[in-house]
Amino acid sequence: MQDLSHHIQTAVRERFPDSVYTAIGGWVFLRHINPAIISPELVDLEMPEDSRKALVMISKVSQVIFIPTRADCCLSATSSLEQ
After folding, report:
1. Could you list the mean pLDDT of each consecutive 10-residue stretch along the chain, which spans 83 residues?
2. Contact of 18 with 39, CB cutoff 8 Å
3. Any idea what the Cα angle at residue 26 is, between residues 38 and 42, rounded to 5°?
4. DSSP labels, 10-53
5. Are the CB atoms for 22 and 68 separated by under 8 Å?
6. What is the pTM of this model?
């Protein structure tokens, strides 16, 4: 995991030097944390079947919060200009 993080860091730093931590954090979240939220049985957790929909919603909301998109960056730039 450390080698892959280093590879992501060097690849992203060349093109987007300000987005290194966002790229690594997004990779960790999307490849490790998000699958554990959506499918807890993969990490040996037992959950009631009716909680699946709630887990998917939690995953979607946390993805929007933790991984900024280009639209989020544009919105924050626009809101700072208005102030």
Report:
1. 86 88 85 86 82 88 75 50 45
2. no
3. 25
4. HHHHHH-GGGHHHHHHHHHIIIIIHHHHH-GGGGT----GGGHH
5. yes
6. 0.60
User: CA 13, CA 8: separation in Å to the nearest integer?
Assistant: 8
Domain boundaries, the chain: 2-82
Phi, psi of 30 (to 5 degrees): -70, -30
Residue listed under structure tokens 């030097």: 17
* Cα→Cα distances 59→14, 16, 22, 80, Å: 30, 26, 17, 28
Give the pLDDT of residue 61: 87
